[in-house]
Specification:
This protein is an alpha+beta fold and 143 residues long. The chain is built from three helices and five strands, in the order αααβββββ.
Length: 143
């Protein structure tokens, strides 16, 4: 898929994949567990990053080098897992807007332009909102 900046974001012909509301809703049962797992991994990653940041250079030289290496290894593993999850969703044409909030967008046609069908964890079993490509979460409207 080309980078978003390389295409007219409103031109349906410029998008490799557009979802109908029914198609996006049909994917939610598969996506929700993955998104929940990714969000949990992101919380874990943030915790390890904060722990590593708290280890000053002096502490690393004073008996905490093994702790730092262990944190770095776990951070690497979690980052790799998260990247794989993001790639999996992106390969399906789904855009992750916020892992912290479990917020995803599905590009969709609305009239003669592209918009996003917008859903976030906890909102229910179906997508209830949409927004313009350049509007973001604040511009959401009920379907």
């Amino acid at each position: 898929m080309s980078e978003r900046g390389d295409r007219d974001p409103r031109d349906p012909a410029a998008w490799p994949l557009l979802f109908t509301e029914a198609e996006a809703n049909a994917l939610l049962p598969e996506i929700v567990p993955l998104l929940m797992e990714m969000r949990a991994r992101k919380v874990e990653l943030d915790t390890y990053l904060a722990a590593l940041e708290s280890l000053t250079p002096a502490m690393r030289l004073n008996g905490h080098a093994a702790d730092a290496r262990e944190l770095e290894a776990r951070i690497h593993d979690l980052s790799t897992e998260l990247a794989a999850g993001v790639d999996h969703l992106n390969d399906q044409g789904i855009e992750i807007k916020s892992l912290d909030h479990g917020l995803i967008d599905f590009p969709s046609r609305r009239g003669n332009r592209v918009v996003y069908l917008c859903w976030r964890l906890g909102e229910g079993p179906t997508i209830g909102y949409w927004h313009e490509v350049d509007a973001g979460f604040a511009g959401r409207r009920k379907l």
